[in-house]
Amino acid sequence: MLKTMRRLVWFLLLAISLALAQKSGGGAGGRPYSPTPPPMSPGPAPVFPTPPPFYPPYPGPVVVYPGGGGSLGIVPVLVVLGLVLVTVYMVRGLRQAGEGPTASGARLRLALLARPQMQKALRRLAEEADTTSAKGLADLVDEAALLLLREEPAWRFGDYQVAVGSEEEVLARFDAWMLEERSKYQETFRHFEGKKHALEAYPAQVEPGGRYLVVSLLLADRRLLPPQSPLTRSRARQALMDLAGSSSFTLLAAYLSWTPEREGEALTEEELLLLYPELEKL
């Protein structure tokens, strides 16, 4: 019992120290920007000249046709056509509702041996990315996947999660994942939907024993991405390929996150396992 209490106290102290001394972190991404046209103010209604009244020289005969003919015969036809159209739309809506999920969200985390060259490449990619268009965000995912594939020998731990549902549900999950990633570090650089923010006054915290860099790639897409569980090195490679398969026609949102962001900083193994308990050894 005493040993358990000591471990608990040690864990709490470590958690508090980590919370007070978060490492730097960066991120880039967002949702594609689609401008909304400004509302159109209605113009003045056209004015047409009123024709003068016409009075016949004498009243003409009134002819009544038996059987209710004339224009009244088209009304039942229009009613039937309207009912048919409503039925078709209802059947189509029910069919689409029964098709299941229409989109998926994915988050891939890779913990790799830190190198200043990798941190520089991530910062440069995040600064130069077009984070306002679907094509720019798809290119960001492609380039991030390429960087990680080239660093495959440095992979040590990983985690991959996939969630499916409607587009609204997937985007809600994407926002929650992005918020969770940002809470892991002190944000020293962010390029989100065209807006950049940098904390240049942040002092790098270089510690002995630091050797890990964590890169997270988040995606919301109209494709149904397959899970890769349990995560292995080959499945992590396949997950990167799946994420890079997104295009400007299917992408809903994307975000690249990494920590530490400042050169010279790296996570210790204790920090890594405490901040990211879901990681599996690759």
Brief summary:
This protein is of the alpha+beta class and 282 residues long.
The global form is elongated
Widest sheet, order of strands: 5-4-1-7-6-2-3-8
Secondary-structure-based class equals alpha+beta
Order of helices and strands: HEHEHHEHEEEHEHE
Integer average pLDDT: 83
- Radius of gyration (CA) equals 31 Å
Helix percent reads 25-40%
Work out the number of β strands: 8
List the total number of helices: 7
Q: Characterize the largest beta sheet: strand count, sense, and whether it forms a barrel.
A: 8 strands, mixed
Quote the distance from N terminus to C terminus. Answer: 34 Å
What portion of the residues fall into strands of 2 or more residues?
15-25%
Low-pLDDT runs: 6-20
Describe this structure in words.
With 282 residues, this protein is α+β, with helices and mostly antiparallel strands. It has a domain of 174 residues. Helices cover 38% and strands 22% of the residues. It has an 8-stranded mixed beta sheet, sandwiched between helices. Helix 3 packs antiparallel against helix 4 and helix 4 runs antiparallel to helix 6.
Topology of helices and strands:
Blueprint: H1 2-20, E1 24-30, H2 75-97, E2 103-113, H3 116-128, H4 134-150, E3 155-165, H5 167-182, E4 186-192, E5 195-198, E6 212-221, H6 233-244, E7 251-259, H7 269-275, E8 280-281
Parallel strand pairs: 1-4
Antiparallel strand pairs: 1-7, 2-3, 2-6, 3-8, 4-5, 6-7
